[in-house]
Design a protein that fits this description.
2-enoyl-CoA Hydratase, Chain A, domain 1; 2 domains; eight-stranded mixed β-sheet; two-stranded antiparallel ribbon; 33% helix
Length: 272
């Protein structure tokens, strides 16, 4: 051990520690996991997978998944540096998911809900035909059963490998959410880091209540692309959850440790 109490890099067993992107300190992985995958030093919210998110939100053993084995086709036979089929296979091995969305029925602190979650590790949580279908079915089930819809978004946007079919999911999911609204249903949208592009421009922004996690990136396209297009300097932090709340695009910012309680309280408040 070093004299200052910090382990030398060569003395740190691989996987026990990780570097926080927020404060750039080395933090003990187990402490982060026990703290809802939040840095205990600076409260940076690490990205979490869909299964982890469900475990953090849903009551134990209450989640019943819909459309478990639904998989994306390759309608364009798309190839860039590798084929779309290869990319799907790689993402499936990495995440143990068939695609980026997981939806189903669950309870949150005893309140029945339809819960949908996007996984940021599956091709950046992008929305193709399968994600669009799952979000649509989730909204339709919430309408049919008369229970609130809760969707946690974490996405880089529409999935370019499916071309116009991926863009069509924006209108498809938005229409399903609109039908839920006409039926008097409640939709709580939770924006996590990142929620961008086609997902941010469709169902994620249509919640009756829009919650964001602290410092989540929210916007349509990245700051570099915006700057190259507009040739103007942009306000500091203009795509953070805090900036979005200040300008009326987000209703409240809720730390991950309080998210379950906040969602349950909102359901009670709206009488659902």
């Amino acid at each position: 051990m070093a004299m200052n109490g910090r382990a030398k890099k060569k003395d740190i067993p691989e996987g026990l520690w990780l570097k926080c992107p927020g404060c750039e300190e080395m933090v003990y992985r187990k402490r982060v996991e026990e703290n809802f995958h939040v840095c205990p030093e600076c409260q940076y919210h690490f990205k979490v997978g869909a299964r982890q998110r469900i475990a953090l939100l849903a009551d134990a053993d209450s989640f019943e998944e819909y459309l478990l084995n639904l998989m994306s086709p390759d309608p364009l036979e798309f190839v860039d540096r590798k084929s779309y089929v290869e990319r799907l296979a790689d993402a499936q091995r990495q995440t143990n998911l068939y695609d980026a969305a997981v939806v189903g029925r669950a309870y949150i602190k005893g309140r029945p809900v339809i819960l949908g979650v996007l996984d940021p590790n599956f091709i950046m949580g992008s929305m193709g035909s399968v994600v669009g279908e799952k979000i649509t079915v989730a909204a339709e089930k919430a309408t049919e059963l008369g229970v609130p819809l809760v969707i946690c978004s974490a996405s880089g946007g529409a999935r370019m490998m499916e071309g116009i079919l991926s863009l069509a999911q924006m209108s498809k999911t938005s229409a399903a959410v609109a039908r839920l609204a006409r039926a008097g249903g409640l939709f709580i949208s939770v924006m996590t880091n990142p929620t961008t592009a086609g997902v941010a421009a469709s169902f994620a922004s249509l919640g009756d209540i829009i919650i964001a996690e602290p410092r989540a990136m929210i916007g349509f396209t990245g700051p570099r692309v915006i700057y190259q297009t507009m040739k103007q300097e942009l306000p500091e932090g203009f795509q953070t959850a805090e900036f979005m709340m200040e300008h009326g695009f987000v209703d409240r910012i809720v730390a991950r440790s309080n998210l379950r309680s906040e969602i349950a309280a909102l359901i009670d408040y709206f009488g659902k």
